[in-house]
């Protein structure tokens, strides 16, 4: 294009149009409608949005469970351990409904095959027969037969002669 007065005028108009902001800031007056803004703690907010928050239904007396005496609760826990030797807390809670005295008669396993399962303390487990199934249905899967926790973590160190020899070339070929 040839640079002349007409071209310069069009360029100036285009630059001014591009520099003009599309949105402008407008300050609200004191009495103007503020739209969706609701001041915190305002009763109108509670009335307006209370239907959005679900309310918990109240529990009736028929739905509440009654407390079992401690001796009956211990008897029912022993009955549970007669059926299965190992129980999860969730399984015992479903079976007994209130396993508060569980720590008095049972031990929680934190390692091994029965991780996070309870079993009877040794002084109580003598009375339980060997016919009990190992794990309750809600519990962890039963371990392999004839495998104990000691066998799982055992490690035999190699003899000193084997360490000094450094192995043979045949051992290296497997890699």
Your description of this structure?
- There is one protein chain.
- The protein has 175 residues and is mainly alpha-helical.
- It is 38% helix and 8% strand.
- It is built from 9 helices and 4 strands.
- It has helices at residues 5-19, 43-49, 70-83, 89-96, 102-105, 122-125, 149-152, 160-165, 169-172; strands at residues 84-86, 106-109, 117-120, 133-135.
- The strands form 2 sheets. A two-stranded parallel ribbon has the order 1-4.
- Mean pLDDT is 75; it is low at 139-155, 161-168 and 170-175.
- This is 2391_t:CDS:1.
- It comes from Racocetra persica.
**Principal-axes shape call:** elongated
Category from helices, strands and their pairing: mainly alpha
Helical stretch tally: 9
Biggest sheet statistics: 2 strands, parallel
For the termini, the CA-CA separation is: 75 Å
Q: Work out the helicity level.
A: 25-40%
What would you report as the Rg, rounded to the nearest angstrom?
38 Å
| Weakly predicted, low-confidence segments | 139-155, 161-168, 170-175
Order of helices and strands: HHHEHHEEHEHHH
Number of strands: 4
What oligomerization state is this entry in?
A: single chain
Strand order of the largest sheet: 1-4
β-strand percent reads 5-15%
Mean pLDDT across residues? 75
Protein name: 2391_t:CDS:1
Put the structure in a nutshell.
The chain is mostly helical and 175 residues long. It contains nine helices and four strands, in the order αααβααββαβααα.
């Amino acid at each position: 294009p040839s640079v002349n007065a007409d071209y310069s005028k069009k360029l100036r108009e285009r630059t001014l149009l591009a520099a003009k902001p599309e949105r402008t800031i407008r300050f609200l007056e004191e009495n103007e409608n503020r739209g969706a803004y609701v001041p915190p703690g305002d009763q109108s907010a509670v009335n307006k949005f209370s239907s959005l928050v679900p309310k918990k239904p109240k529990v009736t007396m028929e739905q509440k469970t009654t407390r079992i005496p401690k001796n009956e609760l211990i008897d029912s826990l022993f009955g549970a351990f007669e059926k299965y030797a190992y129980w999860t807390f969730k399984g015992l809670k479903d079976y007994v409904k209130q396993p508060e005295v569980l720590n008095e008669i049972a031990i929680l396993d934190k390692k091994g095959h029965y991780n996070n399962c309870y079993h009877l303390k040794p002084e109580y487990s003598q009375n339980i027969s060997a016919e009990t199934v190992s794990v309750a249905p809600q519990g962890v899967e039963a371990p392999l037969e004839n495998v104990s926790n000691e066998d799982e973590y055992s490690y035999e160190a190699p003899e000193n002669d084997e360490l000094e020899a450094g192995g043979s070339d045949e051992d290296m070929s497997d890699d």
